[in-house]
Amino acid sequence: MYVSCLYFLRLRSAPVGLDSHLKSPRRCTDLLFLIFYAAFWVTMLALGGYGIKNGNPAALVLGTDYQGVMCDEGNNTGLGKRYFLNVAEVAYAVNALGSTISSTSVTSVDYNLRDAKSICLADCPTMTNTALGISWVCNYPESVEGHPNSPTYTRQDWIAANYDYFADLTAAEKTSSYEWKGPCYPVLYETISTFNTCQYFGTGADDAWTYFKSQTNAVDVFGGTALDEIAPQISSAVEGFLGGDSPLAQIERYIDDFQVGWKVLVLAGVVAPIVLSVLYLLILRYFTGFFAYLILFSVNALAIVVTIYFALKAGLIGSDVITSYTSKVSGSASTAITNFADPAESNIAALKIITYCMIAVTVILFLFTLMMLRRVKVAVGVIKVSVGAFGKIPSLIFFPLVPTVMMILLGVYWLVTMIFLFSSGEMKMQSCTMDAGAPPMLFCKDTTNSDTCHCGYATTWDRNLQGALLFYVFGFLWSSQWIIAMCYLVVACVFTQYYFLGGNYNAVKNSPVLSAMKKMTFYHTGTAAVGSFFVSILQFVRLVMAFILRRLKKLGKDSKIMKYGAYYIQYCLWYLQKIIEWINRRAYIMTSIEGTSFCTSAWNALALMVKNVLAVAAVGIIGDIMLVLGKVSIALGSGTIAFLILDNENFVYGDEKVSSPLFIVIVVGLFAFCIASVFMSIVELGIDTVLLCYCKDSEDHGGVPANAPPALIKALNLAKKVKRAKIEEAKQRADRSAQ
Question: Is residue 186 classed as helix, strand or coil in its secondary structure?
C-alpha cells in the first residue's frame, strides 16, 4: 500500500472514463508525506518487535513477591497467587488505623501498598475462626527467616502443610510471629483470587483474633480496633491496587443478563437499526422537500413564538401575565401576589432588551429564509441525489465493514504489541523512608538485614522506553485516523463518479466501490496521511493534557484555577480538532474531484464554499437536522423494540428472566445509534460530496451543472439549460478535435 504511488509514479490516469471530468491526468499527491508515513510505520513495527522480544505480558497480570520474583515463574513456578502476608502492614499502608500503630503518620513516609510484604502461593489461604486456634501463613521455608530445618524442609512440604509450619518454630520465632515480624503471620480474613492477587473480604475471624490476643507476647497491633471496621478499607485498597473499583457482582449480573438476552441484543440492537436506517433513507429520498420546508417553517415559527412570549412578559403587548392574573384577585391577596411576583424595573428593562433582540433575530431569520428559498431547492436536490446513490450502488451499504475490519486488525495488533512493549520495563526496588517507627522496618525481624527488610518492587520504565510508549500511542491515533481518511476518500470518490457520470455505472466494469478503493489507494494515500496527521496531533495533545490533569488530581495538586484552565484548554483543543476534521473532509472531497494535494484541495474547497455560501448553509442546516433526527429516531425505535420484547413474561418471570431490562435497552440504544451513525455518516459525506461537485460543475460551465444527475436537474428545473450547456460543450470538443 505504501509503495503504490512509488510504483505508479510514472503512470498517468487519462482524463477519460471515471476521471472524464478532470482537466489533467490524476497524479500521486503528497508523496513526501507518504514516504514519511511509511518510515513511521517501519519504526512502529520495529518497536513492536522489540516489545515482543523483550516484554513479558505475565508481568501485567501476575504480581511479585517481596524478593522481586514474579509469581508463577522461576522458583515460584506453580505459585501464581500473590498474597500480602502481614494484614497489619496492609492496614498501615492504606492508613486504615490512623496513628494506632505508630506515632509516625503514614503520610509522612513514602510508603504504600507496593511495599507491603507479599509472597506467592498456589491458592489463597483459608481462614480458621475458632477460639482454640488460628491459621498461619509462613514465609518461604528456604528464606533467611524461614523454616528452622531448611533445606530439609522443602517448598513441597510447605505447600502440603497449607503454608503453615508455625508449630515447628522455636520459641523465639513464635514470639516474633506474635509480634507481626514473621516468619509466620495470622490469617484473620478470608481471601479470594482477584486478578491473581488474594483479595481480602468478609468481617474477619473475631474468635481467632481473640485467641491470638490471649497468647503471651501477642501484640494488639490494631490498637483495639475491631476487625470488621478495618475490613472495608483494606479490601477497597487492595481492589484499587489491582486497578479496579467496579462492583464485580453487578458486572456479573449484567453478563448473565446478556447471556440470557443476547437474542434481543441481536434483533433489536443490530437487525432493527439496519432495517430502520434503510427505511429512513427511503423516507428521505421521497419526502426530502416536505422535510426541508417543514424545518424552515418550524424554525421561523419557533422564533416568532419566543418573541411574542418575551413581548408579553415585558408588557409590550397588552397586559403581562402577572397583571392579568392579579386582576382576578381582590384585596390583600392581590397586593401580596403583586409584591412577590412583579418583576423589578431592572428586570422589565432587561426583558424589553431581550424582546427587541428577539425581534431583530426573527426579522433577520425571516429575511435569511427568503434568501435561502431558492437554495432550498439545491439542498433538496443534493440530498435526493445522495440518498438515491444507495439504490444504484448497494455496495455502499456494506462498505463500513471494510474500515471496521481494518480498525479491528489495527486494534488487535496494536494492543498485543503495546502489552509486550509496556511489559518490557525493568523490575526494580522502590525507594521509601526506612524509619524504625514505621513500616517496613516496624515489621522487620532483623532491621539490619537488607535482604528481608526493604521496600517493595515495581516495574519501571526509563526515559527511552517512556518515549517509545508515547510514540506508540501516537502511532495508534495516526493509523486509526489514516484509516478513517482513506474511507472518506473512497466514499467521496464513489459519489464523485456517481455525480459526473450522471448516475450511470453501466460502462464501469468493476464495482464502483472497488474502483474507488483502487484509485484512491494508488494516488492519494499520502493525502490521507497529511490530513490524519493533523487530527492525531491534536488528539495526542488532548490525551496528554487529560493524563497530566488526572495525575495532578491524584496527587492533590489540582487547584481550581489549574483545573478550569486545563478544562478551557481541553475545550479549545477539542473545538480546533473539530474545525480541522471539518476542513479535512472537504479537502478529501476536492482531492477525489480534482486529484490535487491536501493543501491545494483544502484551499480550493474553502474558496468554492465561500462563493456558494448560501447553498452550503442551506444544505448544511437542512441536512444536519435530518441526519440527527434520523440517528435519534432509529436509536429510540430500536430501544422501544427491545423494551417491548423484554416486557414479555418469559423475560419477566420465566426461565429467561433478566435482572436489569433497562441496562439491555440502553445498550441496544447505543448499538442502534452507532449503526445509524455509520449509515448517516456515509449519507452526510455523500451530501457534502454532491454539493461540492455541483458547485464545481456550475463553476466550470458558467453557472449550469452540466454533468448533474437527473434527480438534481429535475429538482432545480434546469433541464433546458443543461441541454444547451451539453450541446455547447460538445461543439467546443468538436472544434478542438478539428484543430
Answer: strand
